[in-house]
Every structure is written in C-alpha cells, then in structure tokens.
Amino acid sequence: MTLDEALAGLRAGIEPGRAAQMAAYHKQTREVLGIPNPLLNDLAKTWRQALSVPDRVALADRLWRTDIFEARIAAAKLLAQARLRPDEDAWRLIASWVPEFDGWAIADHACDAGARRLVADPSRIDEVEAWTRSDHMWARRAALVITLPWTKQNHPGEEDIAIRDRVLGWAASYADDREWFIQKAVAWWLRDLSKHDPDRARAFLATHGGRLKPFARKEAGKYL
Description:
- The structure is a single chain.
- The protein contains 13 helices and no strands.
- The chain has helices spanning 3-11, 18-26, 37-50, 53-65, 69-78, 88-97, 104-120, 125-131, 137-145, 158-174, 180-194, 198-208, 214-220.
- The radius of gyration is 18 Å and the shape is globular.
- Pfam families: DNA_alkylation (PF08713).
C-alpha cells in the first residue's frame, strides 16, 4: 500500500465540519482532516490484515511524516498489536516519535502501541527510564503512559513487581513537577494501580501525596 492510497482512505472518511471542531478541542496547528476515531480503527485494522510487519512499519513511518493529525494516529494504530514479530523496527520507530509529542491524543495512541512492545520485551524499560530525565514534558509524561500495563496485573511476577516499583519511583520524582499533564499522568497511574494493588497506591500517597497538586491527589485516590 502506498502513502497516497492510505491518505485517500483517510480522506474518504472526512466528516464535513468536524475538522474545525477537532482542531479546537485538541489545540492543533497541524492539519486536521475531521475523521471519527471508529473509522480510524477500521482502517488500521484493514491495513494490519493486508500488510506484512515490515510494510506496516514502513507505512506507519510515512503516515507519521505527513504531520497530519489523523495520519499520525493511524500510524500508531498500525503498530498497536500485541503479537508483532519481528518488532524491533516497530519499537525503534515508536521511540523515535517520542521527542515529537506535543499533545495528549497522538501521544496516547503512540504510547498504546509502544506499551505492547514494552510488554513483549520488558528490557526496553531501561530506554524508557531515560525519558523521565528529558527536558521535553511530553517525553516525561510518556514514560508513565507507556508503562500503564504494569498497573493492571492482578498476579504480577517478580519482574513485574520490580517494574511497578521502578515506575513508582519515577512518579515520586514527578511529584514536585507543576506541569498539569505530568500531575495528571501520575494520578492516572496511581488510580489504575489502586484497583489492583491498593497497598502500593496508598503507600505512595502517604509518602508523596502531599507534594501532588490537590486535583491529582484526589484523582489518584479515587478508588481507595
């Protein structure tokens, strides 16, 4: 599939009048086509079924480079698959996108794809940790969003517990960060963790909760 064919498929799903609304909501200066997310899901599923893994990675790269809002989301959705072999090129591509994150919608879709690659090879957590020291706020946030699978395990193994504690250490280092999106990400991680590991969530809040913004502290403890 060529880039032109993929873009034609995207443009066929444009809903008149939707682009301006989406651009305002997502605070986008890049081109926004105005395509509903369910259609993006359907397109990405069709493309995944039709393309080999190397071709998916290549198309995702080309879609991302257009800098069109929905094309970047579609690029991420192309790689959002638990079983993807080989997956090193997909991981490398997703990681290369992180410095370009500039909003939650594209970043979250890319992190969803990246999380699957991280679960497939947890050793990649070392690379993710470097993002926590980035000057780029969206990269720091991505370190928490991409590790969300470790908040959801009911019966984590020793390696999973180690990663869970490691990420909680990152969250602790973020507690004094006044960026709203960082505080929100910390709260998101803790809120999801509290459903499966309430003791760790409570311990974190007891130690670091006073350093969080009030809204983040409240959100983090929503289910405790």
